[in-house]
């Protein structure tokens, strides 16, 4: 009873202005908030089902929105009430009252006052937000026995709404009412779009994608840039070879591959190069090409365009038009080839640290638009006429080069050949002549005068975010091996005329690939010397190919190839059990 008198004579509180007791008011607004939120989510789901615009609101929708806002404003203000109240009712230091937050339980008709902390005279000042219960689901003043099941039910209901909504969208995709490619723009959530597309695909095909990961990937990073209609991502292990000692610098080379022995073999080649003093490289050319095809009424008229474009007096004007497309794209050459009344125009330009296909294409489009004033009868058949030549083996790339043209060489000491590579200089020279040179000629190879350059190129391309399809021309390589220093040592070189790489744009911006570029010290564009990062990356590719060629050729010469692959490139797992 003393407690009741003391509380009745207490100073006025901020909560006294409320028409209902504080705990009832709080319970009301909590219930209002979750109920209205549940109603609006259901309305949202119904509108999606009916393909109705979300911004068109009925009178009940407007009332619900206002009720939601009112409950949010109150609940935010509720914490302010307790904060203000702590100052209004703060007791003197020598007359500390018990915490306001108490719960009254009736036991055998008697009222028991349950307090979280026993506060006595002389005790330290309680916190302004001190609460009777240690941790509660809702703030002080709310009857938790009432609110806890309400909140659990509301949360459960909201979850059901989201699941029901996803099921509706999945059914729409399966039925063809919603195009799968439009999910990202419709939902505004790339990860959710991938999950819905994935489930729709499984229902449509009746095949499980259980082994294809979905979680742990940033789908926003690939939107409009790297991949359309994603349903997951493929895991490719990344190994490292090195250190590769190249041009006086050491590089640890990342390689993404599923082929056993590849990383180990390249690593052995790096060891032999390092022990012999390292390799050196030279970038011979650096220019990306694009070749549109245009047509005229006669071959004579087509030849006029060829002479015009190859006239040095016109080059400066065309370069100004071309260079407007980019800060880094600078026109280098224009070469033309005629087939009847069709003209193939091969533009080559520098592209900074980007691989540069988009850059050169924009510049070419600018020049074609400009040429229409002098050649209005020119019919542009296609922006690419395959004289570029992109993602196809072509003699023009082998002869003229495309991207970065690199030569890389090293002299391997005789004792290193014997100790590390387990073979002899004479055996390597003979094998290279008969396999890489004569054997490739017999096969009619185009740019394939090597043992396995594409293995290393592909692995580095995947790890660093390059275009894997450009492995075709980037793997053009001729491997040369000669005995030097009176036949004691081995001079080995690789010449690669069309390595197409970049350190900005495309897949290089994805986190994993960016990390691999960072490992090489080549992440992003070079601020001091634009284009230098991509050129260094090209030399690293060539240096790694040099290491791979050395090791594989040595394994073949020593008769170790089959033995090593049987040991390291065969799985002992029962895949029938794994798949089941």
From TrEMBL:
Its EC number is 1.1.1.34. It is found in: Endoplasmic reticulum membrane; Plastid membrane. The keyword Cell wall biogenesis/degradation does not apply. It holds the Pfam family HMG-CoA_red. InterPro entries: HMG_CoA_Rdtase, HMG_CoA_Rdtase_cat_sf, HMG_CoA_Rdtase_CS, HMG_CoA_Rdtase_eu_arc, HMG_CoA_Rdtase_N, HMG_CoA_Rdtase_NAD(P)-bd_sf, HMG_CoA_Rdtase_sub-bd_dom_sf. Keywords: Endoplasmic reticulum, Glycoprotein, Isoprene biosynthesis, Membrane, NADP, Oxidoreductase, Transmembrane, Transmembrane helix. The chain crosses the membrane at residues 20-41, 62-84. Pathway: Metabolic intermediate biosynthesis; (R)-mevalonate biosynthesis; (R)-mevalonate from acetyl-CoA: step 3/3. It comes from the Eukaryota. Belongs to the HMG-CoA reductase family. This is 3-hydroxy-3-methylglutaryl coenzyme A reductase. The lineage of its organism: Eukaryota, Viridiplantae, Streptophyta, Embryophyta, Tracheophyta.
């Amino acid at each position: 009873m003393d407690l009741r008198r003391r509380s009745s004579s207490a100073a006025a509180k901020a909560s006294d202005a409320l028409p209902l007791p504080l705990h009832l008011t709080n319970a009301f607004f909590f219930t209002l908030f979750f109920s209205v939120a549940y109603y609006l989510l259901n309305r949202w789901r119904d509108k999606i089902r009916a393909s109705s615009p979300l911004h068109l609101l009925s009178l009940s929708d407007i009332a619900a929105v206002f009720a939601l806002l009112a409950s949010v404003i109150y609940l935010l203000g509720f914490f302010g009430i307790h904060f203000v109240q702590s100052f209004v009712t703060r007791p003197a230091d020598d007359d500390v009252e018990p915490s306001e937050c108490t719960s009254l339980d009736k036991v055998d008709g008697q009222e028991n006052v349950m307090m979280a902390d026993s506060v006595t005279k002389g005790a330290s000042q309680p916190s302004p937000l001190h609460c009777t219960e240690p941790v509660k689901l809702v703030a002080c003043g709310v009857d938790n026995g009432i609110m806890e099941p309400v909140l659990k039910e509301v949360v459960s209901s909201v979850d059901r709404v989201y699941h029901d909504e996803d099921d509706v969208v999945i059914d729409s995709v399966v039925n063809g009412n919603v195009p799968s490619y439009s999910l990202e723009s419709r939902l505004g959530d790339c990860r959710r779009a991938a999950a819905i597309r994935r489930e729709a695909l499984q229902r449509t095909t009746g095949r499980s994608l259980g082994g294809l990961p979905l979680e742990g990937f940033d789908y926003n990073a690939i939107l409009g840039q790297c991949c359309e209609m994603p349903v997951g991502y493929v895991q490719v292990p990344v190994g490292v070879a090195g250190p590769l000692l190249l041009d006086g610098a050491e590089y640890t080379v990342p390689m993404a591959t599923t082929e056993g022995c590849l990383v180990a073999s390249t690593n052995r080649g790096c060891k032999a190069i390092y022990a012999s003093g390292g390799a050196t490289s030279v970038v011979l050319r650096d220019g990306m090409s694009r070749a549109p095809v245009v047509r005229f009424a006669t071959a004579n008229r087509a030849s006029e365009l060829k002479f015009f474009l190859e006239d040095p007096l016109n080059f400066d004007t065309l370069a100004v038009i071309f260079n407007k497309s980019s800060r880094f794209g600078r026109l280098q050459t224009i070469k033309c080839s005629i087939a009847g009344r069709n003209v193939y125009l091969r533009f080559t330009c520098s592209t900074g640290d980007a691989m540069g296909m988009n850059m050169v294409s924009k510049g070419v489009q600018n020049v074609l638009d400009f040429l229409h004033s002098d050649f209005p009868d020119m019919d542009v058949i296609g922006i690419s006429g395959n004289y570029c030549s992109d993602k196809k083996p072509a003699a023009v790339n082998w002869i003229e080069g495309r991207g970065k043209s690199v030569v890389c060489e090293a002299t391997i000491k005789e004792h290193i050949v014997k100790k590390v590579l387990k073979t002899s200089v004479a055996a390597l020279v003979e094998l290279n002549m008969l396999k890489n040179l004569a054997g490739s000629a017999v096969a009619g190879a185009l740019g394939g005068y090597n043992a396995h350059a594409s293995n290393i190129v592909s692995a580095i391309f995947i790890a660093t975010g390059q275009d894997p399809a450009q492995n075709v021309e980037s793997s053009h390589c001729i491997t040369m091996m000669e005995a030097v220093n009176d036949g004691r040592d081995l001079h080995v070189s690789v010449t690669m005329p069309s390595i197409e790489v970049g350190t900005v744009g495309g897949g290089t911006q994805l986190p994993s690939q960016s990390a691999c570029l960072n490992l090489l010290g080549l992440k992003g564009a070079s601020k001091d010397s634009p284009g230098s990062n991509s050129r260094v990356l090209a030399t690293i590719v060539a240096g790694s190919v040099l290491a791979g060629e050395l090791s594989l050729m040595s394994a073949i010469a020593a008769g170790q190839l089959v033995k090593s692959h049987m040991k390291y490139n065969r799985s002992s797992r029962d895949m029938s059990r794994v798949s089941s």
